[in-house]
């Protein structure tokens, strides 16, 4: 194993942003090394709900301004990759649902009116009834209205596994990162004592970016963390449901996604308003009690008597919000040979990689012949949270 490695692009962080970028760069002939200090996907990515948003949810509060936002194109790009015809071949990745749904319980019409008035969703939303309803809502007692959004839900563990395959020999498990300078310019990183020289360094370490920037002695861009307190329910009576349930406000009252546990049962993963400010303030037992009450009132026909419950506290890492930051695009800051960013959503990993590729092209960085990097210690794949918390 060489103690000095040369590569075109050195990526730090093996979540969806780093892995997607890595796979795209390799496909274009760039040599890469991707350093991961814990497990692949084990940061925010495997804790996400896997929804490939097209922006419909954001139209509820008017934040989506229209087609110029990158997010509107994400479902198409993901679908093409999942079909094996897009920018990456993700044909083996499991699609959990062809659609995400918007579900308005009872008679709440106010927020739906403004939602349908939004240009961003016109023509992309259809009402569904009867057998077209998501399985968990197919009950004579169900009274609400349900709309099908052109958004996908992917199985993130199988996505990360496929992206790790596409990474070939480029993955490196390592903890200690220090800057490597030549004549005062960043020439790469020293990783667990090994020099890795690179034309460009990309930090895609999610919440880890803040500490990495400090290590490199750089104060910008600033990062913010948005805490969430998610709820997980596993039970033999649960059926698949992928939906934003609307409340009176601009945010979904609850967002439900359904994931396969290792023992074959379904796990409902609950986010939305339930997991935000008030939910963050609650202790786990109170958060579970609140979630249970919500489900019992929204879906009284579901038997939860045998359900197992857990909560998960997790922070979303994002660039510190300023007037200049648009929430529905990935964020990338370029400082000479260093790039640092956050996709801000799993769905925006393709947009994050576009931004890096555009910066490489701007700077005239092309693939160069490099010796291959075999025998590097490999980081493990992360275990899905539902299997960790509800074994
Ligand atoms: P991460 O997945 O956090 O990966 C960063 C990686 O860097 C980690 O593996 C970490 O171990 C590694 N790392 C950290 N420090 C270092 C270091 N010093 N050296 C080496 N490696 C390091 N988005 C959607 O589009 N749809 C959703 O449905 C959705 N649901 C979400 C639900 C929740 C509860 C949360 C928290 C987020 C959700 N998101 C969703 C957002 C999405 O998960 C994130 O935007 C995305 O996963 C971020 O990917 P990332 O690769 O930047 O970061």
From TrEMBL:
Keywords annotated in UniProt: Oxidoreductase
What SUPFAM superfamilies does the entry give? FAD/NAD(P)-binding domain (SSF51905)
Q: Name one Pfam family in it.
A: DAO
What InterPro entries does its record include?
FAD-dep_OxRdtase, FAD/NAD-bd_sf
Q: Where is the FAD dependent oxidoreductase domain?
A: 8-314
Q: Which PANTHER family match?
A: GLYCINE OXIDASE (PTHR13847:SF289), SARCOSINE DEHYDROGENASE-RELATED (PTHR13847)
Name of the protein described by the UniProt record: FAD-dependent oxidoreductase
Species of origin reads Pseudomonas serbiensis
């Amino acid at each position: 194993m060489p103690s000095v490695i040369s590569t075109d692009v050195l990526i730090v962080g093996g979540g969806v942003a780093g892995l997607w970028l890595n796979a795209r760069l390799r496909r274009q002939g760039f040599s890469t090394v991707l350093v991961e200090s814990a497990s692949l996907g084990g940061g925010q990515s495997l804790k996400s709900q896997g929804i490939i948003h097209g922006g419909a949810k954001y139209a509820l509060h008017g934040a989506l301004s229209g087609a110029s936002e990158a997010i509107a194109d994400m479902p198409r790009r993901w679908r093409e990759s999942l079909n094996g015809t897009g920018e990456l071949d993700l044909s083996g990745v499991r699609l959990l649902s062809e659609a995400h749904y918007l579900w308005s319980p009872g008679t709440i019409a106010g927020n739906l009116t403004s939602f349908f008035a939004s240009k961003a969703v016109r023509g992309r939303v259809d009402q569904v009834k009867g057998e077209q309803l998501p399985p968990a809502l197919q009950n004579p007692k169900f009274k609400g209205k349900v709309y099908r959004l052109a958004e996908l839900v992917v199985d993130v563990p199988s996505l990360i596994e496929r992206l790790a395959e596409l990474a070939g020999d480029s993955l490196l498990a390592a903890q200690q990162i220090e800057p490597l300078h030549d004549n005062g310019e960043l020439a790469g990183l020293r990783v667990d004592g090994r020099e890795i020289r690179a034309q460009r360094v990309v930090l895609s370490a999610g919440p880890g970016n803040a500490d990495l920037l400090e290590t490199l002695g750089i104060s910008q861009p600033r990062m913010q963390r948005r805490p969430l307190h998610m709820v997980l329910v596993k039970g033999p009576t649960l059926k698949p449901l992928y939906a934003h349930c609307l409340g009176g406000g601009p945010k979904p009252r609850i967002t439900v996604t359904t994931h396969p546990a290792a023992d074959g049962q379904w796990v409902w993963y609950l986010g939305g308003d339930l997991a935000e400010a008030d939910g963050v303030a609650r202790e786990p037992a109170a958060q579970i009690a609140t979630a249970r009450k919500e489900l019992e009132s929204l879906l009284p026909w579901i038997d939860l008597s045998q359900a197992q419950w857990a909560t998960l506290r997790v922070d979303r890492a994002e660039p510190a919000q300023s007037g200049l930051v648009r929430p529905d695009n990935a964020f990338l800051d370029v400082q000479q040979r260093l790039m640092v960013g956050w996709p801000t959503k799993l769905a925006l990993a393709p947009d994050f990689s576009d931004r890096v590729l555009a910066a490489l092209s701007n700077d005239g960085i092309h693939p160069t012949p490099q010796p291959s990097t075999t025998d590097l210690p490999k980081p493990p794949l992360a275990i899905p949270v539902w299997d960790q918390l509800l074994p």
